[in-house]
Amino acid sequence: MIYEIRVYEAEEGRAQAMRTRFKEHVVPRLPQHGIELIGVFEAPAEDGRLTYLTRFKSEDDRTKAWAAFGADNEWRQIKAASEVNGPLLKKQTVSVLSPAVAGLLLG
């Protein structure tokens, strides 16, 4: 299994819009593209960050899933409409992880 942690940092004053778009439009689309969402975490509102954890069977599956998500025409339209007054996302950090010890996952 491959795990991925993504941290989104919103543009100044755009954190709530970024979080709303994520919850209403991104979360429902992830499974359609083979992206298993494990958890979503928010920092304090004034921090402007949103962190989420996903899981994939392999690196190849991860690559294909994000390519499919990025090519989703409906998502592209939603993204464009939500950014008519400028981008919501200032910075994105992606960390790809594999379990260090087999079978040692909690929960």
Short description:
This protein has helices at residues 15-26, 59-71, 73-82; strands at 2-10, 36-42, 49-56, 89-97. Helices cover 33% and strands 31% of the residues.
Can you walk me through this structure?
This protein has 107 residues and is an alpha+beta fold. The chain has one domain: 2-Layer Sandwich (Alpha-Beta Plaits), CATH 3.30.70. Helix content is 33%, strand content 31%. Helix 1 (15-26) packs antiparallel against helix 3 (73-82). The chain is globular, with a radius of gyration of 15 Å. The mean pLDDT is 91.
The computed structural class is: alpha+beta
How would you describe the oligomerization state of the chains in this entry? single chain
Report the radius of gyration as a whole number of Å.
15 Å
Q: Order of helices and strands, N to C? A: EHEEHHE
What is the residue-averaged pLDDT? 91
Provide the low-confidence segments as ranges. Answer: none
Q: Roughly what fraction of the amino acids lie in strands?
A: 25-35%
Q: How many DSSP-defined strands? A: 4
| Percent in helix | 25-40%
Helix-strand blueprint:
Blueprint: E1 2-10, H1 15-26, E2 36-42, E3 49-56, H2 59-71, H3 73-82, E4 89-97
Antiparallel strand pairs: 1-3, 1-4, 2-3
Question: Which key phrases capture this entry?
Answer:
4-stranded antiparallel beta sheet, globular, alpha+beta, single chain, Alpha-Beta Plaits, 107 residues, 33% helix
